[in-house]
Queue: 4 jobs
Job 1
Amino acid sequence: MVKYKYVLAPGISEELVREISEIKEEPKWMLDLRLNSYHEFSKKETPDWGYPYLSKDLDFSSFTYFLAPDSSKSENWEDLPEEIKNTYEALKIPEVERKYLAGVVATYDSMPVISKIRSSLKDKGIIFTDIDTAIKEYPELVKKYFMKAIPPSDNKLAALHGAVWSGGTFLYVPPGVKVNLPLQSYFRINSSQSGQFEHTIIVADKGSELTYIEGCSAPHFTKGEKALHAGVVEVYVEDNAKVKFISVENWSKNVYNLTTKRAIVKSNAYMEWIEATLGSKVSMLYPASYMRGDNSYTININLTIAPPNTWKDTGAKVLMSGSNNRAKLLSKSISIGNGVSVYRSLINVSPNSYNSIIYSQCDSLLSSKESKAITIPHNEIRNDTTELHHEAYTGSISQEKLNYLMARGMNEEDAKSLLVLGFVEDILNNIPLEFSVEIARLLKMQMMSG
């Protein structure tokens, strides 16, 4: 059993917000931001769109908002307490970090436990550390970006996040520097009836390039117990920079995953979101690209799996205020059993955003008569120089193809899994091999459970 240094009482109040800030020894500007966020949270209503039972299911007074393991942050996995180290070894995070990654930051419940980066990257001026350390060592740099892309007033969950955030990652790549290996952060919720609110800031300065991978998980809790995940991701892609953001979220079916992700994209820049949403009871997640410069390109690739008794409300947002921009939105969802998959997109092109081209495609696969797929595209095109192409497909697993495979010796489960993997092959091809293999394995497990 993991030992905790701090476990604050359930519920949220101004006193709790102050206590979190005091424990973390934060500067006054961060305390002020937390208090402002708490007041925004108190004023806002729980969203009444999307998952229909959100306000009923989420009793914010029932969650524990801060749990700090009794462990100092380390650069070595071996220095972690045995219980925490075993968790990460089981997830194979140290093995992947040794083979494929340029650095890793790991957050366990509310606090960072590992922060590592290769010395060759440090020598290039790259900052990759947990955000608590970044606030202490690079205060002005963090202050410049913290909740500027996603202010507390944006939505109720962002306001909650601003009040009680803890843990997360800060990544800064200097002008012209190209990082050839991925950097990864891993977030673990280990306690039921708790919340995790990690904050991620990624800054790709002018002409720089990076790939960032985010992994998330939680154990299976006792029936009736819940956990809340309301992280915030802010990405700043400066002129001529390139960012590839990959997220593999394998939460347990007790987790409510309500994260806000947003990128500010400048001129001649490239922003790519790749989201694999595999677990959780409820997900509401719409990575957004705000195209504020000219001649930029954004890609949003979304793979969603809705197992039985889950609701996956995912999609993408693109808001263009610059000209000559390009956007591609590709979504594939699989509903298993009575699982519900919702694709929701927002494309907003301003009157002064000229000669932009947007392509949007959302495909849904149903595994049974009880499965549901809903598509809700929302397009606001406010000039006549924009090209918008939208395609959508909803279908079921082909009985003819299923019979064909079974007639050649495959059992029904393996045949269904093969057809589903063929359906998502183009998305898996965009994900690094070691992660696409893991996603394929998890997808097969979900198909068998359905």
Job 2
Amino acid sequence: MIHLHVGLGKCGSSSIQHFATQQAEALRAAGLVYPLLGKGGAAHHMELGIVARQARPRRRAASVPVAMAALRDAMQVPDGTSYLLSSESFLKHDAARSRRNAEALRDFLGTAPVRVLIYFREYPAWVESIYAQKTKRGENILDMDGFIAHRCRPETVSVVEGVKPWLEIFGAENIRLRSLHRDDLVGGDLILDLLAAMDIRTPMAPFKRVNESPPWTFLELARQIAAGLPAGDAAEEEEALAERGREATTRQWMQRLAVRCGLALEAAGLEPARVQYMSRADWCALRDLYNRDVDALNALLPGHVIPSSTTPEPPERGSAPSWRDVPEEIGEAYLGVLAKPALLRAMPASFAAAVRSVLKTARRRARRAAA
């Protein structure tokens, strides 16, 4: 049996992949293999995703077909062993792309029995998680209201059309579709639900979740830094890097700052209070879309009822949070990290310039407040 976890992204995929990687030996002892082949050094099977996309990989072009052939051969050994393959690059919201991926993977896996595992989450929480992911990587400069208006149309949020091709190609009886709603998970836990889906009864060691969203205070700092980064031709000239390399550099530095700023808050004994990111109207619209989709998916998958959202509606909210709303003591802790000369010298030129712009603005605000 091949267990094929196909996404979605920001729906526990990193937790599944890191759990399977860290517990590989325990899982193997229980009869399940999480193959190294096809992972390309990451926790998920991104090279298998390349096969699904039918595109040439950016790296290791010659090694991917060899690794994929070896992986396919290994999974055809009739020894009773089960396999888990995982990549959030498989399931897409767009029906045509999702169908192409499902067909490519069905062809790749041949006649092997496959159980497809799909996890999604309540749309308001999912959109906030996507906002956090893109902002902490320096890829988003919009506030939450702008992010929803420009990037969260119903067709880019709803999972129904993307799920349908998997039902058709692999058979509804071979699809295990779960919401991250606690009432829909075995034991109210993603990993316990995953183990139950793979028929593993062996107790596993405790596992720390990964890729969690940083505090909103850092997200708003990251958004201000990203807004100061050069774009287009200016960025390429200044950095003398290909677009992909520039993005990777930005992402690496955002992640490094996230760690350093988190340590700064910890050292200062500060804990940022939660904020309401989404307006009540946007939250309710996404919740209603989620509940309509749950009804549609339940009709497609008789025998299992995905629960509707029971999360309480948020109160009314004014404008979306921004760096201006970060409490002064937290802002000082973050800015103390950013202003370190050694850190600034180590940054790429355009990134350091953006950070200096944030520092300059913060100092100007501080002077105004003091006056």
Job 3
Amino acid sequence: MRIALDAMGGDHGPGPNVAGALRAVAAAPDLTVVLVGDPVQLQPLLAEASPAGPIEIVPASEVVGMHEKPSEALRKKPDSSIAKCWQLLAGQKVDGLVSAGNTGAVVAGGLFLKRFLKGVRRPGIAALMPTVKGKTVILDVGANVWPKPLHLLHYGVMGSEYARAMLGIENPKIGLMNVGEEEGKGHDLIQKTYDLFRSGPLKERFFGNVEGRDVHKGVVDVIVTDGFVGNVVLKHAEGVFEFLMGLVGQEVIGALTTERDIAKKAMHGLISKFHHSAAGGAPLLGIDGICMICHGASDERAITNAVLTAAQDVRIGLNARITAAIAALPAITEDE
């Protein structure tokens, strides 16, 4: 198994990427990580580490900056680490790719190649959100801000297969993000998508509309939404988590005179469990190959977990499951 890692992506340069790759190959004997980036920067980092598993370097002379316009950057920088990762995947030289670089450029690379799974019209990014009952899958969280109803129906299918494969939920319940739970709420896109779910083969598992406050309640196992709303929900959840942890540190732990060490340990446990680095990254579902998109601030732990998750997605045949589920849908035109 071979996973390409954008070694130049992220806010912190190649250091965390190389360190994460080293940890990943040490944890998975069947894994080879292909570092894509500047050999002048990567080779010294590897030389210091004595890798416990196979790591290769594929040269890439350019880097897409975090604030560059995605499509324009990919056109101007064909030898960028992101573009090279996609070239390796398209050429079947690797089974998947992982990047903490410019999210828009990573998605654009996949859209440009149009290497979609059979039947899939638009890929979507799936994120795992913590709930009081475990985890729920929400998608899309940033790949497709102008979806059609058929795209959202496919997200319900792909999210369900991801929940089955990664969360062990046999019959995932699907909810549609809306401004109210009542039928008939929302704009035209949501109402048409609601009808597709309610009248189609997923109707037995379609819960109906869910609101933003339901995300962490575990009301459903899969939440379907467009990329604009999904990204806002994801970033808002990250911000609330950071705010609450900071508040606990100041107002609770700061006020303790005894048992402060116990409280600090409990808070660090919460941060370790629910921080974005625990998941590592979010998969771009619908691509012919595995693609994991990581937070720009990803550290060594996040990169390790993202690479290992990508490898796990390959092992379990996630894409074959998605393809079969999409093929089982009745014929629907893209305008519907």
Job 4
Amino acid sequence: MNLSFKKVLVLAPHTDDAEFGCGGTIARLVEEGAEVHIATFSACEQSVPDKFPKDILRTESKNAAMSLGAKETNLTLFEYQVRIFNESRQNILQDIIDLRSKIKPDLVLMPSLDDIHQDHLTIAQEGLRAFKSSTILTYEMPWNNLTFKTSTFVHLKKAHVDKKIVALSEYKSQAHRPYASEEFIHSLAKVRGTQIGASYAEAFNVLRWMIK
């Protein structure tokens, strides 16, 4: 069954959050003809390991998103400094409102309101303010979620999970993180699929659902 969304906006606090949180769903949406936009709010230059160029995440994120099928023209990267998004809350809200006006998405994917990372929480809170009259699903980041309500699942094929793994493999500068392993990514998709009697899935929580 087609997911039926025509325009989708993914709000990603940092480079790689979109791929980790909903990479398989992005691949499926693109495959089914949706116009997927990804807005990332920081390239995390302060967090890049010393052996890599400070701007490497810009290239890695572009390659990752495009490997999922997103068009380069639909990628937006803002310049906020990692870990202090709360100090720029109003500017972030305005950027999201501008994206709303420009894209007019019928689905928004963003971090959970139960995500304990300070930047993720800021994007979730301001995303809700901007899109309170839109359909919003929040994506899962198990290492940051103290709790996560799996109220919605997107069925995935192995090809979608494989695309997610390939996309995340573009992040050579982040390969040291334990949750960046292919085994973990595959296993989580398998667990979420098992919960609904499918081969693979990604889980989301419904924050808003608009029926027109």
